[in-house]
Amino acid sequence: MNNKELKKRRMWTFFIDATEELIKTEGFQQVTIRKVADKAGYNSATIYNYFGELSHLLFFASLKFLKPYLETVSREMEKTDDPVEKYLIAWECFSEYSFKIPDIFQTVFLMDLGDHPKTLLASYYELYPSDLMAIPEELQPALMERNIADRGRFTIGPLVKAGLLSEIQAEEVNELTNLVWQGMFTTLLNNRNHYTPEEAQKRTMKYIREIVEHKVGLSKTEPARNA
């Protein structure tokens, strides 16, 4: 690695760490380019030499807050070999943490980052490889998918391989469960109801379980519809 690349990585780390600290101390909504620059000891113009916009910096810093979620989902999914339970555990963990820290999950999974979100993800794990190494190898491909639908397809894939769902049924489950989560998440994020994060998760998982159990039960009585 040449000196230019080393400097770039060092500067990225300075600004990402400063953003992370501001989120912790002042709150997500209070982060600005000027505050990040002051915290890191540089001027605002310097940040734009390394990050295209504030959303990219927030994205990188937000990924660092996902560590507890990633550790939990990895640990819990390893407790069972049942593909249905693994799928439900994945949703349990995702909904729990997304409702606890909605600003972080909004930034990582839903915020408009421009045309190259996968490139940003790859850059993050290149900068912080230990975050990726701590995740079981079977789950690592999902971490490189920011798109919720694509991540869902990866998670539900084992149900298709086990013959519990046809490909079409799996796609339907993926779409329905994502819609349930997105609806509740958006409602909670925008303060459109009075649910606590725990209540929101409980209701979300109730609907997701019903969808999965219905489709898995249906697959046992319907002919395959993959064609």
From TrEMBL:
SUPFAM superfamilies documented for this protein: Homeodomain-like
Residue ranges annotated for the HTH tetR-type domain, each copy included: 9-69
Domain of life where this protein originates: Bacteria
PROSITE patterns found in the cross-reference section: HTH_TETR_2 (PS50977)
User: Which key words are in the record?
Assistant: DNA-binding
DNA-binding region as annotated in the record: 32-51
What name does UniProt use for this protein? TetR family transcriptional regulator
Which species is this UniProt entry from? Planococcus chinensis
